[in-house]
What does this fold into?
Amino acid sequence: MKIVKKINIWLVIIVILASILRLYGLTNYPTGLNADEASIGYNAYSLIQTGKDEYGTPWPLSFKSFGDYKPGLYFYFVIPFIKVLGLTELAVRLPVALFGIGTVALIYFLAWEIFEDKATAIFSALVLAISPWSIHFSRGGWETNVAVFFITLASVFLFKSFKKKIYLFWGLLAFLISMYLYQSPRLIIPIFILALLLLYKDELKISNFNQGKSLIKSNFKLVLVYLIILIILTFPLLAQFTGGTGQARFLGLSFLGDLGPKNRINELRGEHSNPNSIVVQLIHNKITGYAPVWLGHYLDHFAPSFLFITGDQIIRDKVPEVGQFFLTESIFLIFGLIGLINNGSKNKKFILALLMVSPLASSLTFQTPNAVRSLPLVIPFSIIMGVGLAKIIKLSPEKTRSALILLILVSLGFELIHYLVSYYILYPNLNSQAWEYGFAQMVPKLEKYQGQFSKVVITDRYDQPYILVLFYEKYDPIKYQPQSKLTKRDKFNFGTVRSFDKYEFRSISPNEIQNTKSTLFIGTKDEISPGSHIIDQVLDPAGNPTFVFSSTI
Amino acid sequence: MKKINQTIILLLLIILLSFGLRIWQISSVPPGLTWDEATLGYNAYSIIKTGGDEYGSLLPLTLKSFGDYKPAVYVYLDIPFVYILGLNELAVRLPSVVMGTLLVLLIYLFMVEIFNNRLLGLSCSLMLSISPFAVQFSRPAFESNVAVTLNILGILFFIKGLKKNKWFILSAIFFSLSIFTYQASRLFVPMILLSLVILFWKYLMINKFTVMTVLILAVVALINGYLIFGAGQGGRLSTMNYFAYTRSSGTVKQLSKALGENVKDLKFQIIEGEWFSYIRGLFERYLIYFSPKMLFVDGDYNLRDRVPDLGTLYYFSLPLFFLGFIYLWKAKSDQKINSFIKLFFVLLFLAPIPAVLSRDLITEIRALNLVFPLAILEGAGLFWLIKYLLKYKSRYLYVGFSIIGFIMMANVVIYLDRYFVHMPKEYGQDWLARYKNVVLDMNSLVKNHQYNEIIFTDYYGQPYIYYLFYTLYPPQNFQSQAILDQPTVDVGTVRRIDNIFFKHVYLPDNRGLKNSLLIGTEMELPLSDIQTSQNLKLIKEYKFADGQVAFRIVRVE
It folds into this structure.
């Protein structure tokens, strides 16, 4: 087997390293479980038990979650894990981690297919294995990371299809799977495929492996059958697109919804002595107003401060003091981009196309740079950095080469340790609220005390508390489904469930506790007024109370 | 022969365009003089009239100015203009305009010298001539802009010197002048000289005499520079320096608490120590000059170094930038010009370094040497695009050229609209737009009536220099009363000229005044206080173009 020859001991070591980085302490780090993860877990649990999701819809393709519709394939991936491991944090997170490890192995093959250079392939896998961007989103219920696995897989298959046509089908199928996993591939992948058709039009026209016959002509029937299968598989996706539910969320997130540029256009027109003249209207209009805004959102994903210094702005998406990649890797990136110029590989256009297409979905939203929606970027960046590292080592004089490698290893090693300290110590201590820490500890206590009360009020200060209570109580889905009632969407386009069983989820007002009998209140520290009778509390890793239990005596 | 003539005509047109873009409405856009511009102008005036600067130092190499000790070359360049045109905005800014225009010629000569390709040279000079980055900094009197032109002259004559050694002397002169023109050159010139010597070591070794000339001149220039700037500079440099700023003690405390370690522990010092935070900062500061977001969308943060909404370069330069990079990098494989193209990349990657060491995250004015290599990237990109299009049949050719031309024109129009219409309106305060009007009106009031005391606000900074500048105050009269009040290492100011006091205007402190003038901001002289007070009378109010009140002149009866 040719593949076996290509696998070498270094790849094995890198995959082991990637596994340790992605699996160690997965249950407890990140500290807590966020509402999206709980939703994935509980819906999968509900499907196992009843064949229906939390709202009683049987086997949905996209899940209604907090009023938003999520592509549903990942929920199904989680089912076997929940069957084996039970409804636990690990079961929700493990598939993502495993796919993350798989991506590290796959990128080796992808880089090999593109550059046919062992060093480049190994270094690409190394960069991906240790990159904070990949590690962060391999740990937690991030479906987007699974989508990236399938995009990488599809890319490998596409290259294989040059030699064996059947892979073209598998490649397109893998692309399709990624579109059932997460929103952003639904925009990125069709554009990417179009770009590839343009870039590889010569290869498609006259296939060298087919005695001069075109790929499509020589296998007309086969191609037709595959295409029909793929098109049929696309139908449900199209139905979702036109269904209106997805559109509402998109419009809420779109940069076009930002009124700033619109007001700015009027302001600028007003500064002209003749605001309504045609010239002024031609200079200041919606196109000249919004196009640069979009460009800014797009380029945000290539800003050095995002890539190497501070990373994403949302605390759930990042750990303190680290960028998406290590500082040392910025040097690899520069050499990599330069290396691509001189590189003879005709497939480098593939990697550049992926690089340019990946942030497109994210660039249409107003929150940029966004590391989650633009996660496919991690693949082209890692490969380009792999090219750069290989180039640096190749360029270095023979005499000093080992010293240079040592220097690179030391600086990458230091940055990796710095990152791990940040991930395992700083992050839980400083940002545990980003992962809704405390429900795992709160729910057992709730179960202990609730027998004495006829009603329980739980604060809604943390995102979607109901789903976390369902998750940790392993609340019987048969009992829950009839009670599920979502509120109207709020200004962020999200809804929530305000009550089920004897639980109510809302904010607690100051004097409520004294005046309400036989009700258990579980609130944040600020919600429970200082004089109240406190039954119990839950502390976060830094030692501050996250939940305080209180009631009238 | 015909082709050469065509090139020359095109080049002249481009230079004319550059000059036009740089001088059009130069007296009123940007809409006021910065502190430094007013200082440079008045010192030139002072040297013409007395031979000494505002403090009376005879033909100084550095200006004490606000205690920041500026290198003085700009003042000497300004002397002929002030002599002929008088002391006004035009005269102050003309040296910068001329040097900025000269750079457009130099980029052509540089490219033709290296590539022997006139079209490429024209393309680069066109891109430099319309570049927002270049226009922004070659209109106002920025010493940095002059220094860039001197640096490029130094490089150009160095290259010429490789063929004819006598040019090395000119090269050394321009490099030394650059050091006496702008602070950042003290770092940049040694770096670029060293790179030149390393890159062209082979050429230089052919003639030992040459090496000696270059090295000696370089060393002399550097020693001069350092000796002269050594004095009185330390304090300010250390506050403007990036390394003077550490993380806040709160952040450090939070980190040490989360880690459960004492800040002084070795482990903490290694993992979360200040050293790594500095390195992160240096990477951030350096890389930002190559960030497409910064270059094409965001621009500099300082409002004097930008126009509203737009980035440092045109939007259409985004693809040109990458095309140009690829084109030049590929051209590097040509052995004959290899060292020269390497020189280009050295210039590109060294240019931001002086800015990296400053405390501000972005300061394009200190990274202004970038303007030259960036224009080359854009120009090379455009050249390549044109060459690529020329391969196609004429039908597509016209379509292609029309589209490119339209996009470029549209973007240039958008830029010029922002620069000439919106910038003066929106950034009036940052350009201290109303100093001129208020100083001139005050002067005529003082001429018509003898006031006991005049109190002029220092809210906008350095009011004294505007008084000197706009009233053409006789330098010989000022020199004797020039006392710099500089309580900290940061810039100081002059507090008194004759009976005019430059300080914060605070009404309750000034109750005892009689027969005086108060000139202050909206906050310092609120309308409510003026109206309720018997002896106060509002004489005139000055507004910025955006409607905000800039100054009020109030008479105390």
About this structure: The longest strand of chain A covers residues 534-539.
